[in-house]
């Protein structure tokens, strides 16, 4: 089982920035890829960015504005943990959504709201 702690969401004006963070922990962890997805009102969930040892992918809709970074995993007293961050710049109203952190596209965080509005 993997536990998630997500943070960094909120409301911002168009053109603003937010940084989402997600820490996944478990024992064992065995995470290969970590991703951010989002789901806007009335829309299907879509992948925004993912990062794995072999590289990263960024959705065309956010390329040049979003970046994903993954910390090196570390051992803890109860297992292991790893963090991934999504830096979001030049935000647009169309970026408003609930953002979800995912590990191996199998385990999911609870989601965090991002609202971009004047």
Q: How would you describe this protein?
A:
- The chain has 118 residues and is an all-beta fold.
- The protein is 0% helix and 57% strand.
- The chain is built from no helices and twelve strands.
- The strands form two sheets. Strands 2, 4, 5, 6, 10, 11 and 12 form a seven-stranded mixed sheet that branches. Strands 1, 3, 7, 8 and 9 form a five-stranded antiparallel sheet that branches.
- A hairpin with a 2-residue loop joins strand 5 and strand 6.
- The radius of gyration is 14 Å and the shape is elongated.
List the helices and strands and how they pair.
Layout: E1 2-7, E2 10-12, E3 18-26, E4 34-39, E5 46-52, E6 55-58, E7 66-70, E8 74-76, E9 79-88, E10 97-103, E11 107-108, E12 112-116
Parallel strand pairs: 2-12
Antiparallel strand pairs: 1-3, 3-9, 4-5, 4-10, 5-6, 7-9, 8-9, 10-11, 10-12
In brief, what are we looking at here?
This protein is an all-beta fold and about 120 residues long. About 0% of the residues lie in helices and about 55% in strands. The radius of gyration is 14 Å and the shape is elongated.
């Amino acid at each position: 089982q993997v536990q998630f702690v997500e943070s960094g969401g909120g409301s911002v004006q168009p053109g603003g920035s937010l940084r989402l963070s997600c820490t996944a922990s478990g024992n064992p962890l065995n995470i290969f890829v970590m991703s951010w997805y989002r789901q806007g009102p009335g829309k299907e969930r879509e992948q925004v960015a993912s990062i794995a040892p072999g590289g990263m992918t960024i959705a065309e809709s956010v390329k040049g504005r979003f970046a994903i970074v993954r910390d090196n995993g570390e051992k803890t007293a109860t297992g292991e943990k790893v963090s991934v961050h999504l830096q979001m710049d030049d935000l647009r109203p169309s970026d408003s959504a609930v953002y979800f952190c995912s590990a191996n596209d199998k385990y999911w965080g609870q989601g965090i709201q991002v609202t971009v509005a004047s």
